[in-house]
Structures are given as structure tokens and as C-alpha cells.
Amino acid sequence: MNQQVLVAGAGPVGMTLALALRRQGALVRIIDKAGARTDKSKALVIWPRTLELLDILGCAQVFIEAGVRASGARILGEGRELVHVHFSRARSTYPFALMIPQSETERLLEQLLAADGVQVERQVELLSFTDDGQRVTAQLRHADGSLETAAAAWLAACDGAHSTVRHALNLPFEGDTLESDWVLADVQIDGELPNDELTICWMPEGVLACFPIGERRFRVIADVGPAPEVTPPPPTLAQVQALLDRRGPQGLRAHDAVWLNHFRINERKVRDYRHGRVFLAGDAAHVHSPAGGQGMNTGMQDAFNLAWKLALVQRGQAAPGLLDSYSIERSATGIQVLRNAGNMTRVALLHNPLLRELRDLAASTLGRLPAIQQRMVDQLTELDLHYAHSPLSMSLHGTSVQPAAGARAPDVALCAADGSATRLHALLRGGKFVVLSVGVAPPGITPALKSLACAASTDAAEDYEGGHHYLVRPDGYLALGTRGDDASPIVDWLQRLL
Ligand SMILES: Cc1cc2nc3c(=O)[nH]c(=O)nc-3n(C[C@H](O)[C@H](O)[C@H](O)COP(=O)(O)OP(=O)(O)OC[C@H]3O[C@@H](n4cnc5c(N)ncnc54)[C@H](O)[C@@H]3O)c2cc1C
To answer: What does the pLDDT look like over 345-393, one tens digit per residue?
Structure first.
């Protein structure tokens, strides 16, 4: 049977999925109906958790070298600083926001794929498909109009917000389109605007946000009242300048616009990300407010979650039931990200003067508390996302080991089974589970489980409890932790997977 995964859509999510599948030895084909990658900056931020996952793939550095680091974010209210958060609080190897235009992110992903022998097939459109329970049969149209019938074991719908696959499955895209119209501008800005921080201005007439893209280039977005029935023409540079003058820090001058547009905010999600042999990921499954800049990041993290599961099932190392956990885990994350981004947007858009005053007061007092600052950073960086309620996360009676089942497994220096020095992320690169023993001798891994997991140990690690074994999933989350005198729950967990 054809074991291939067909990835429909070569945006950031489709290409991340194809790359992760390929690096885990899976058979993958990736198609896109467009003739070329986007040349638009669209999603600008790669957050630390996504960088960690790219590190597990072995390519975080490629992105870091192509972007610029932002060290914090500040919220100004009528000229005065209300909140200032520093990303150095992020408990990660990457304590910064990587500012990199989506066009660059896509270029790098396509390059990495090509280096791994996978070409994105452009001008190949998925028209329709059937899923007979054994395989997916897809109808594809090529640039010259010719049709192809392609068979695959699985179809990954990474075909964006207007997903053909979602429409073909007739899946409701539940949620709302917000009333307000927004202006977007990629421009050069001269003046006193930090180019290593995100600046957000809450003003009585509306919100204005400036995100650095590199040198003196910035993305400016601002709400401009209720959206008209018909999409307005792109804003002019003069209109953007007027918004900067009224709402931004004083003395800014915008020039050399690269991209001017209007957009509206959609907050929508499908209920289930899996339908038989079809998986939805990225914007095909969820779209959010750009507040928090988490749309693309969350989509790329869908891809990391799905890739190792599909790779294990394709290799016959896990029962297909494992794939059910994809929707359970990622749909719960989607709900959380949608809620957080929606809340941030609504708070920024408050118009009632009394509520605005209360908001500003709360932000300037609570926003200074270290615990609140930490929460804001954990949330923005997506380091707080976890799978505690997943069927794959097993909490054992009588143990309350930290980090808990479902939590992110922080990277740590380790000693591999052959005695060599390594790191957790480097070991995960092979697509296997890691049995991590902290302050105890590693348990033996039976020959039957050796293709699925490898052992590693450390005498002590700041983020882990001594005297315990942990089972780390290939995507860097913890399946379970157990006492050092009994590793059998880990062996049982792995055996159940088979
Ligand atoms: C104006 C704008 C500004 C944005 N700003 C931000 C931001 O600041 N931060 C943020 O996180 N996000 C932002 N986003 C959202 C971000 O761009 C998306 O979350 C991200 O692109 C999602 O990636 P994706 O791969 O799921 O989908 P897409 O990037 O939409 O890619 C889908 C791909 O599928 C292809 N395709 C579609 N149908 C088919 C088919 N039938 N057959 C084959 N191929 C098909 C398309 O050609 C496309 O290449 C912005 C989006 C827009 C439009």
C-alpha cells in the first residue's frame, strides 16, 4: 500500500510538516496551487517554543541568523508607559522574539526541504479527494490543466484559511468575524521607535501597534472603526502617517511603504482536526486575531505534533490509534490560543472611557508585578502550552513529579547511552522517545523498544526532579515521570503504543 503522506499546501505549516516528516524518515509529497511562495511579510514573529521545536528538527539556527531579536514589548497609554515586559524572562534557550517576515520563513523552509530531497510541487492544486478508510485518493490539477489521480495513506490539509479540504468535508468553521476594520502597513519609520521592541499604543480613538522587522522597517497595524460592506482600497502612506501622528510616539515619520492593506479579524476553528485519514493543520483548522502573533506559530506547532505520530504509524511502530491524540491535543491548544488572542484584542479595543481608565490603571499596576509579567511572557512565547489533559499524558498515583505529564520538557545537557555528551533536543532529532533519568541509573531498554526509544541520563538538572525517570516524546513534551526505583510504567507506556 502507498504509505505516503500527501501535504496539501506549502505555506509555513505544510512545509514544517513535510520537513518534520522527512527528517523522521517518512514518505511525503507536498503540493501547492500557487506558482510561488508568498512575498508578503504576514506573520512576523517566531516565538521561543517554535524555535525550540525547530531546534529539535536541527534547524533553529538557520532562522535565527535570518531574523532580528526583539527583547521585549511595551504598552503605552496616551504617551505614558503602562506595561513593559522583557522576553529575557522566557525560560528557554531562546529568550527573545525572533522577528522574521513570513516570506523569509517560507524561503528557509523550502530551502531546508530541498536540501532533504523534497521539492514543493507548485501549481498543483488539490481539487477533491475520497477516503475509503484504507487510503485517500486525491484529484490534482497541474499547471498545464492535466489531471492526476494520486493515492496516499494520509492527507494533511495545510491549505490555509479558505481550505479546500475543510470545505469538501463540509466542516463548520465556528466563530466570528470582528466588526472592526484594520489597516496594515510595512514601512520604514524614522524617529524614536525602538527597533528591538514591540510597541503597542492604546489610545482613546483606537489601538496602534508597531513591530520591528529589521533595520528601520516596521509593521504598523491600527483599527480604523467598523468595517464597511465593501473592502476599501489599500490605505495611503499619508493615512498611515496620520495614524502614527495621532496615536504613536511623537515625531515618527513613515516612508517607503512595501505593503499597505486592510484586513479584518476572524476568530474561527473547526471542532475536530482529524477526519478519518485526513488531518487539518494551521489556518485550515484555526484562525485568530493577530494580537500575540501566534497564528503561524500555533500552526507550525500543529505540524510538529502530527509529524512524529504519522511517522511512527507509517513505520509500523505505533498503532493508528495514536493519531487520535492529534486532534485532542491540538484542538485544546487552539481553543486556548483563540481565547487569549481574542481577550488581548478586546481589551485593546475598549471604547468606553470608564472601562478604558480602569484597564489602564489595572495594566499599569498589575503589569508591574513579576508574577503577572512572567505569565504574560509564558503565554506570548507559547512556553506555557501543554498536553496535561491528553490521553497520552499519564499521571501516576502517588507521584507528583515535576515537570508533570503533558508539560514541555526543557532542553538539558545529557549523557547518552554510549557515554557521549549530548542534549535532549539533539537526541530527540532522531524521532525517538527519550527515557531521561535524573540522578538515577538509566533503566535497560528492551531490544523490542530500542527502535522506539533511547536512554540518556544526567546527575542533576535544574528543571527536573532528581531520583526520577521521565519519558520525553519526540516533540519535546513529557508523556510521564516515574520514581527512580521503578521504570516499569515507562516500559508499559511504550509497549501500549506498539
Ligand atoms: C495580512 C496578514 C497578516 C498576518 N499577520 C500575522 C502576524 O503578524 N502574525 C501571525 O502569527 N500570523 C499572521 N498572519 C497569519 C499567518 O499568515 C497565517 O497564520 C499563516 O500563513 C498560516 O500558515 P498556513 O501554512 O496554515 O496557511 P497559508 O500560509 O495560508 O498557506 C496555505 C497554502 O496552501 C495553498 N493552497 C490553498 N488551497 C490549496 C489547494 N486546494 N491545493 C493546493 N494548495 C493549496 C496556498 O496556495 C498556500 O500556499 C497574517 C495573515 C495575513 C493575511
So the answer is: 999 989 899 999 999 999 999 989 999 999 999 999 999 999 999 999 9
For the full predicted model, state whether its pTM sits above 0.70.
Answer: yes
Please indicate whether residue 186, judged by its CB atom, sits closer than 6 Å to ligand 1: no
Q: Which residue lies with its CA nearest to atom 3 of ligand 1?
A: 42
Q: Write the CB contacts of 204 (distance below 8 Å, at least 6 apart in sequence).
A: 78, 353, 356
In whole angstroms, give the CA distance from residue 45 to residue 474. 24
**CATH, domain 413-497, list 3.40.50.620, 3.40.50.2300, 3.30.1950.10, 3.40.30.120:** 3.40.30.120
Q: How remote is the CA of residue 69 from the centroid of ligand 1, in Å?
A: 23
Phi, psi of 19 (to 5 degrees): -65, -45
Q: Is any ligand 1 atom within 6 A of the Cβ of residue 299? A: yes
Please tell me the distance from the alpha carbon of residue 244 to that of residue 366, in angstroms, as a whole number.
27
Span 211-238, pLDDT tens digits: 999 889 999 999 999 998 888 999 999 9
CATH code 3.30.40.10 for 5-44+101-173+270-347 = no
* Ligand 1 atom with minimal separation from the 296 CA: 19
Q: Which atom of ligand 1 is nearest to the CA of 299?
A: 26
- pLDDT tens-place string over residues 284-297: 999 998 888 899 99
**CATH number of the domain located at residue range(s) 175-267 in this protein:** 3.30.70.2450
